Amino acid sequence: MIIRIQYLRGIAALMVVVFHAFEMLERQTGFGNPFRVGALGVDVFFVISGFIIFVAADKSDAKPFDFMLKRLLRIAPLYWALSLLVATIALFKPALLASTVFDLRHLVASLLFIPMQHPKLDAIFPVLVPGWTLNYEMAFYFVMASALFAPRVFRPWIVMGVLGAVVALGRLGAPIPVFYADAIILEFALGIAIALVFRSGFRIAAGTGVLLTLTGFALLIWLEPVDLSRFVKAGLPALLIVAGAALGRRDAAKPAWRPLLLLGDASYSLYLTHALVLPVFGKLWAGEGWSMMMGGGFVFIASAAAVSALIGVLCYRLVEKPLLGLTARTHFARKPPSGVMVGQPQ
């Protein structure tokens, strides 16, 4: 486990949570969202995923089928459980949900990680809205698993080539679903590029790594409002952010910061559950008669983020971790790949 990567995962998940909390505040008050950069935490996740998945597959020399099954067992149980929970609420208590209606075809597509138009929202979203990123993750896993049939030396170039070709062909009008032709999938390739440097043994000083990561975050904030492609204004800064964390030597004298490490471990649970927690928290907040304008709205934002983080950690400890233990005892998952770093779907 690379501790700084875990830190990044916790930070990226919290960025997304705060972004959506500000969106709630914006809908209630009419004020703009000052934290739109938070949505780009997803891009940091994708670069991290490309890095970790390649390193794990490379170290374990996994077989294609085993690799794909382990990836599925890693991300699907919790996602399926929460998706079915949302679908059940939509079926029996639809008034509790603002933007979800029960649609069997949409539910099946969501569970199978097939991108499909949301029956109520004007976008391609699954039943559990944050799961749109998992549709990209599963596609990336499939490409990575297919590359495992090739000799080790060719694998990274095959994956990066396929991802690049999908985007290029989609732009040229080839019959490739628009969802997959989005340049955001190239962020997985950026993670693989970092992994190749990591595999070579190249490292930088701990302080230089921190500076590189901070520079990436500064660029992310600076470029977010600029009219550029998401790959340029989010993917490239995310490359610097993750490279600094992955390649920087760890200062052995400094103990791990446990709260942020725990948040990193729980980042997948936090990312999935916050879509359920925030609406409930907002209704409870309003039910108590508390104004969202308190402290300029920041009291609400801080409280919403803290509660989301707490629920995310509890979900990780009480649901996600036991599910991982259960699947780890199955026949196919009995041999965990060496070098796998725990946490967020990778």
Structural notes for this entry:
It is globular and about 60 Å long. The longest helix is centred in the C-terminal third of the chain and has 31 residues, at 298-328. By secondary structure, it is mainly α. The protein has 12 helices and no strands. The protein has helices at residues 3-29, 41-60, 64-92, 104-111, 132-147, 155-171, 186-199, 206-223, 230-247, 258-265, 267-287, 298-328. The protein starts with a helix and ends in an 18-residue tail after the last helix.
Could you outline the blueprint of secondary structure elements for this entry?
Layout: H1 3-29, H2 41-60, H3 64-92, H4 104-111, H5 132-147, H6 155-171, H7 186-199, H8 206-223, H9 230-247, H10 258-265, H11 267-287, H12 298-328
Helix pairs in contact: 1-2, 1-9, 1-10, 1-11, 1-12, 2-5, 2-7, 2-9, 3-5, 3-11, 3-12, 5-6, 6-7, 7-9, 8-9, 11-12
Index terms:
single chain; 346 residues; mainly alpha
Offer a concise description of the structure.
By secondary structure, this protein is an all-alpha fold.
Quote the distance from N terminus to C terminus: 13 Å
Radius of gyration: 20 Å
- Whole-number mean pLDDT: 90
Note the beta-strand portion: under 5%
* Secondary structure tally: strands: 0
Question: Helix and strand string, N-terminal first?
Answer: HHHHHHHHHHHH
Which secondary-structure class do the elements indicate? mainly alpha
